[in-house]
Write a structure and sequence with these properties.
The protein has 394 residues and is mainly β. Helices cover 7% and strands 37% of the residues. It has one helix at 2-28, and strands at 48-50, 55-58, 70-72, 80-86, 96-100, 104-105, 114-124, 127-128, 135-140, 151-153, 158-160, 168-170, 178-184, 192-198, 202-203, 212-221, 234-238, 246-248, 253-255, 261-263, 271-277, 286-290, 294-295, 305-314, 327-331, 339-341, 353-356, 365-370, 378-384, 389-391. Strands 2, 4, 5, 7, 8 and 9 form a six-stranded mixed beta sheet that branches. Strands 11-17-16-13-14 form a five-stranded mixed beta sheet, with no helix packed on it.
């Protein structure tokens, strides 16, 4: 009887201290042995589930950037997990090393293209278990070149003389944070003439180009600076060869006054060169540089003279357009003053008052009085500044 009581007491103690583990073991059928009070529990290694070994992860299978969700089996009594991703199977350096309370994890950064290795382990309280077996997966954001910027405009082989608003456009690439836009002078895109980074699938170059054939291409970039598949290469011709069209004066016009020269504007012109010459071959000329599309000379031109003129546009790169056509005009300032006072054949005027109508455009007048109509015997020869009258001095 005493032995039975002793055994009963022992069984009762065992029930109090260990029944939980016995019941769980019986219910779950776990092969894992139950820990005893005060023992440190080391959790088992999890089994990796997804992605499967050597899976291809792309922007199509895991849009938009080809970032997989890593998952593994849940470990009993695990309080957390650690997952690591590396570009080396030895995990000398890691791309991702983080802890999570769930048996799955999705990286919050773009991984970039390449082969990656990953593993996971469980933790119970402060005790880490062994790592799982190592698995690998391959990332190709472009789905091996199938996802790339599709160029839209300008069409391949286009020709133009200036850049318009949103001149270059292409289809957006899912997952792209920015785009590198490049223009080169060779189809291999080695000799770069212009480059820019934009956050939108369009760009207008901020700099002028010289007349030439150019090639352009776009590269998508993810949020970690990884480049995606390049677009095809298209080409265009930059041909700034539009000459100004002359407006006035008309060709072969006869002008009594200083002319106002006018011509049409040329797109992207910074300034214009106006040349005026008395020679049709322009061996010698006066040149005026202006940002306007018209010009009026400050000084009068020589009278009774034929003049030739032409205009050329210049852009910000100091590239000159072709010259306009050449026009001719004749300067013929031939106004005659009409005498008003004294009247013709007046007599007994010792100190006459002379007056006449002003000639349009005249800056000065020359007054002569003589004893005969041949003006061989001049009494007075006076130059007057823009005054159409004169008192004979006493």
């Amino acid at each position: 009887m005493m032995n039975w009581q002793k055994h009963l007491r022992i069984a009762t103690i065992a029930w109090v201290m260990g029944s939980v583990w016995l019941i769980i073991s019986a219910a779950g059928g776990l092969a894992q042995s139950a820990p005893t009070a005060g023992d440190a529990y080391t959790p088992d290694a999890p089994t990796l589930v997804t992605p499967a070994e050597a899976d291809l992860i792309t922007g199509l299978t895991h849009p938009p950037l080809g970032i997989p969700t890593l998952s593994w089996t849940r470990v009993i009594s695990a309080s957390g997990y650690q997952v690591q991703i590396s570009t080396s199977s030895g995990f000398g350096a890691t791309v991702v090393s983080t802890e999570t309370s769930n048996p799955s994890y999705t990286p919050i950064i773009a991984l970039g293209d390449g082969v990656f290795y990953w593993r996971a382990r469980a933790k119970s309280s402060t005790t880490w278990g062994a790592y799982s077996e190592i698995a690998s997966f391959t990332v190709s954001w472009s789905h091996r070149g199938e996802i790339y910027p599709v160029l839209l405009a300008p069409e391949d082989g286009a020709e133009f003389a200036a850049f318009a608003h949103t001149h270059f456009t292409w289809q957006a690439v899912p997952g792209a944070a920015t785009y590198q836009f490049r223009i080169a002078t060779d189809p291999q895109m080695v000799n770069t003439a212009y480059t820019a980074v934009t956050t939108t699938p369009q760009h207008t170059p901020l700099a002028r180009l010289g007349n030439n054939v150019y090639y352009w291409q776009v590269t998508p970039i993810d949020n970690k600076g990884h480049a995606g598949a390049l677009s095809p290469i298209w080409h265009f011709t930059f041909a700034w060869n539009t000459a100004p069209a002359l407006l006035s004066p008309a060709d072969a016009a006869t002008l009594p006054f200083v002319p106002r020269f006018a011509w049409t504007a040329v797109e992207a012109a910074k300034e214009y060169r106006l040349q005026i010459s008395t020679q049709q071959n322009f061996n010698t000329y006066d040149q005026i540089v202006t940002r306007s599309t018209d010009y009026t000379p400050v000084k009068a031109l020589s009278n009774d003279q034929d003049y030739f003129w032409r205009v050329q546009a210049v852009d910000k790169r100091n590239t000159a357009s072709p010259w306009s056509q050449i026009r001719l005009f004749r300067a013929r300032w031939s106004f005659k003053p009409q005498l008003l006072s004294p009247s013709n054949n007046s007599t007994q005027l010792a100190y006459p008052f002379f007056a006449w109508t002003p000639a349009p455009g005249a800056e000065q007048h020359e007054l002569q009085s003589a004893l005969g109509t041949s003006f061989d015997d001049v009494i007075e020869d006076t130059t007057l500044q823009n005054v159409p009258q004169h008192n004979q001095p006493k």
